[in-house]
Amino acid sequence: MVINCYYLFINEQIEWGVILETARWDDYRIAYQVARSGSLAKAGAALGINHSTVLRRIDQLEAAIGTALFIRHQRGYQLTDAGHVFVDNMPQVVEAFASLENRLVAADSDLRGKLVLTTPSDYLVILNPYLKRFRDQYPLLRLEIFATDEKLSLAAGDAHVAIRLGPKPDEADLIVKMLTEDQLQFCASESYIERYGELTRLEDCNDHLWVMPNGNKTRLPLIRSVLDHLDPERVVYQTNGFLEVYGAVEEGMGIGPVPRLHALRSPRIKVLNIKLDQPKGQAWFVYHRDVKHNVRVKALYQFLANTLP
């Protein structure tokens, strides 16, 4: 897509007007990724193209605008003064294009095309059976999923919908709806209970084996409420994801925290009735106000709200 427009950038006391006759939007997008990544190889990996294509598009953009955006170094690409102006203003441009695209998509009432969703990888395994049924209902839709713990920018159009866990998101311009309660519950497999007995009191926690998350997940209040009473030697398996915790618990390696929907789906594990101050967690359906009329987003929300337990 060729952009024929006039941009006026103001940086402190410098005004820079450039008529862009031949520059393409993809060139700007690629240059912005190079600025964020710091090298051609990293930018190419993020965009799914090879570094020679990245270099060619950078050269093409700089020739079109008659200004160098980068200084080439062996250590990577550094910004020129014009490059700094470019990076300072590009986020607003990206958001404007994303907003335009979302409004154009919203104008199409047919349930076909692509719907981009982001959610934590731990939660995707829960969603997949429901997404399959959603696709069965709307077979002309294509789903693209980003399974990550990072928060993608809905304003920049990184995704149409985010399903987030934990506290209610409060970023500006986001519409947030609760989907379901998804509190963690301590569980054990039937095979573990048969061998070691069933834990009913937190005071007896050191008589059992435990499967626990590590890293930042140990800060969760529910996890902390057990770890504070637990001998570290009783933790026999640690991992950075609740999906892996769930798998280890299901195999009988120990007692561990399992999301409620995982526990409901597995006939091999049992929720333990341990008296804890268990804060309830929620799953939130989040989207930018620019896509509030998008029929695909509306359809996905209505489907999940009506089918998730």
From TrEMBL:
Name the source's superkingdom: Bacteria
Kindly list the biological process annotations in GO that this record carries.
Answer: DNA-templated transcription
A GO MF label: sequence-specific DNA binding
Q: Name one Pfam family in it.
A: HTH_1
| Keywords on record | DNA-binding, Transcription, Transcription regulation
- Read off the InterPro entries from this record: LysR-type_TF_proteobact-type (IPR058163), LysR_HTH_N (IPR000847), LysR_subst-bd (IPR005119), WH-like_DNA-bd_sf (IPR036388), WH_DNA-bd_sf (IPR036390)
Q: Which residues form the HTH lysR-type domain?
A: 34-80
Query: What PANTHER family does the record point to?
Result: HTH-TYPE TRANSCRIPTIONAL REGULATOR, TRANSCRIPTIONAL REGULATORY PROTEIN
Q: Which protein family is named in the record? A: Belongs to the LysR transcriptional regulatory family.
Protein's name in the database: HTH-type transcriptional activator CmpR
* Name of the gene encoding the protein in the UniProt record: cmpR_2
